[in-house]
Amino acid sequence: MIATNWALLGHEWAVQLLKTQIATGRLRHAYLLTGPDGVGRRTLVLRLAQALNCTNPPEPGEFCGECRACRGLARAQHVDLLIVERQEGDREIKIAAVRELSRSLSRTPLESRYQVALFLEFETASEEAANALLKTLEEPNPSVILCLTAADADSLPATIVSRCELLRLRPMPVKELAAALTKRSIPAPQATLLAGLSLGRPGLALRWHEDQAALRQRAAWLEAGEQLLYANRVQRFAFADAASKNRKDLRDLLLVWLSFWRDVVIRNSHSAAPISNPDKDEAITLISARLTADAARGVLRAMDHSLNQLDTNVNARLAMEGLLLELPDL
User: Fold this and answer.
1) DSSP SS3 for 91
2) Is the torsion defined by CA of 264, 266, 272, 276 positive or negative?
3) What is the Cα 187 distance to its own chain's centre?
4) Which range (144-153, 163-172, 310-319) has the least confidence?
5) Can you give the pLDDT at residue 251?
6) For residue 107, what is the DSSP state?
7) 102: nearest Cα among 88, 82, 74
8) Which run of H or of E encompasses 251?
9) Percentage above 90 pLDDT, the chain
10) CA-CA distance, 146 to 161, in Å (whole number)?
11) Pairing with 224, which of 72, 155, 204, 277 sits 20 to 30 Å away (CA)?
12) Domains, the chain, ordered by start
């Protein structure tokens, strides 16, 4: 059974390019996939790994999805799939992780035709880690495919980018993604909401769909954010204290709030750009009407600053208190 478009939503051009390279034997030794979080960079690499290592491909450049290699690679659990990413609590990908992986790549694949090395969000790599990878890029092992993901090519050293084939992945049109989600048996109203929330990023839309608890948590965070606009200082500080107990959850909360305030700025400026929280359209319109453009942008800057602080050793509660003091009092 052939997996049409590698069972991906969107990115048909990238799938076709990689299929052709596999079928004609013109694979590159390294690829750089750029685009926003949730656009499908990691999933595309896993599909590439399946197409390279499937033991029963229906045709060149395809994969069966059923053999041991296909099943393991689909779950990102395979001995010849090596992943490097920033560890929880670290600000960057460290040189030790890159060196360890480079040593692993010096051997031949254990089970498959190719080893696939995936470097997630490599823009977070330290300068030393990037330099360590450069040597591996310059002396490629013919049985290794290196795949890097990053938000954009400009966030990486030019020496890294120049040694990779660049695949720029972009979000799908929201209506097109909604239609594709309905074909996967997601009810049309929810598909429309998910496509809007994700701003056309298929991976993020599917992530929301599979984690209904996360959707409910998002709704609760947005509700709390609205209520804090009408809260006094004591209430705001109490919220800051409770929210800062878990640093990771606090970061996720701020990302949700950041998306909401971006929508406020969009609506305030009368831009035609789509908002990322269509289910909060009424609240976004109300708040944007009560704030000046400078005030709305000020909140957005404050939230972005707080997120940056969380990536350092700044006290989470103090950072949150400072942010909540920046919120307008409606």
Assistant:
1) coil
2) negative
3) 24
4) 310-319
5) 85
6) S
7) 82
8) helix 247-268
9) 61
10) 12
11) 204
12) 4-168 (3.40.50.300), 211-326 (1.20.272)
Cβ atoms 46, 8 nearer than 8 A: no
Residue pair 242/234 in contact (Cβ under 8 Å)? The answer is no
| 3-state class (DSSP) for residue 161 | helix
DSSP codes of every residue in 20-86: HHHHHT---SEEEEE--TTSSHHHHHHHHHHHHH-SS-SSTT---S-SHHHHHHHTT--TTEEEE-P
Helices (H), 63-211: 68-74, 95-105, 127-138, 158-161, 174-182, 188-197, 202-210
At 3 the pLDDT is 54
Per-residue pLDDT tens digits for 223-280: 999 999 999 999 999 999 999 888 888 888 888 899 899 999 999 888 888 788 888 9
Question: How far is it, in rounded angstroms, from Cα 78 to Cα 203?
Answer: 21
- Give burial (CB, 10 Å; 0-12/13-18/19+) of 270: exposed
Q: What mean pLDDT is predicted for residues 137-147?
A: 90
Q: Inform me whether the pLDDT recorded for 2 exceeds 60.
A: no
Residues paired with residue 148 on neighbouring β-strands, in sequence order? 32, 119
CA atoms within 13 Å, Cβ hemisphere of 75: 9
pLDDT of residue 6: 92
